[in-house]
C-alpha cells in the first residue's frame, strides 16, 4: 500500500514539473528586427545571436550585460510588464525599443 502511495506522489510531482517546465524561457520580437530569447534558468539573454549574462532580475526588470574582457560593452534591461527594452552600447549610448512576447503557434 505504501509503495502505491509513494508511486502516486512521485508521478504527481513529475506531472507538475512538466506543466511548468517552460516558464523560465521566453521569446520576444522588438522593433528594428531585434529578437530576444530570455532563459531565466541559464541566466542568459540571446539577442540576434549575441549572448548576454543576466546579472539581476526582479519583479519589474531583467538586467543583463555583455563583456569583452573586463569591460562592459553592452547592457540591456527589459521591463517585464511593458516589454520595453533599453539597450546601451559603449560609445553609442542608449536606444529604446518596444517588444512583444511571442506565443507558441503549435
Written account of the structure:
- The chain is of the alpha+beta class and 106 residues long.
- It is 17% helix and 53% strand.
- The protein contains 1 helix and 8 strands, in the order αββββββββ.
- The chain has one helix spanning 2-19; strands spanning 25-30, 34-39, 44-47, 50-57, 61-68, 71-79, 84-89, 93-101.
- The chain has an 8-stranded antiparallel beta barrel.
- The longest helix has 18 residues, at 2-19.
- 11% of the residues are buried.
- Residues 17-21 have low confidence and may be disordered.
- Low-confidence runs of at least 5 consecutive residues: 17-21
The description of the largest β-sheet is: 8 strands, antiparallel, barrel
How much strand?
A: over 45%
Count of helices? 1
Mean pLDDT over the residues = 85
- Would you tell me the structural class of the helices and strands? alpha+beta
Reading the helices and strands in chain order gives HEEEEEEEE
Strand order of the largest sheet: 1-2-3-4-5-6-7-8
What is the total tally of β strands?
A: 8
The end-to-end span amounts to 41 Å
Return Rg in Å: 18 Å
Q: Which geometry do the CA atoms define?
A: globular
Helix content bin: 10-25%
Short recap of the structure:
Helix content is about 15%, strand content about 55%. With about 110 residues, the protein is α+β, with helices and mostly antiparallel strands. Strand 4 (about 50-55) and strand 5 form a beta hairpin.
